[in-house]
Amino acid sequence: MGAGGTVGAGLGAFLCFWRQRRSKLVVTITFPDYDTENRALAFLLGRFSVRVLYSGGHIVPEAALEALADQHIPFAVKVRTEPSDSTPPMESPP
Q1: Quick one: what percent of the chain has pLDDT higher than 70?
Q2: Most CB atoms within 10 A, among 21, 51, 75, 77?
Q3: Structure-derived torsion over alpha carbons of residues 9, 12, 13, 19, reported in degrees to the nearest 10
């Protein structure tokens, strides 16, 4: 705790990170238009792990859905899945 009994700003970032890691489910979402997509990505990047797909979808942790809803950003859920631990990591070519 900081001076005066307040919790440091780093705790909020840690809690966000912890909640994200705790949730194993990821979802593929889309946005209704380009402007909404840009606004959503600006909000999500730095807060959640986001993968942008060539198809126009975005893979985000389930916890990101509540955050998007809190910001009144419209989205559509396309696929809900659990990430596979058996998928080998991508390697760079020799």
Answers
A1: 59
A2: 75
A3: 170
Contact call for residues 82 and 25 (beta carbons, < 8 A): yes
Largest Cα separation within the chain, whole Å, is 55
Q: Which domains does the chain have, with CATH numbers?
A: 23-81 (3.30.70)
Q: Is the pTM of this model over 0.70?
A: no
Beta strands in 33-90 (DSSP E): 51-52, 58-61, 76-81
User: Which uninterrupted H or E stretch holds 26?
Assistant: strand 26-30
65 with 19: CB under 8 angstroms? no
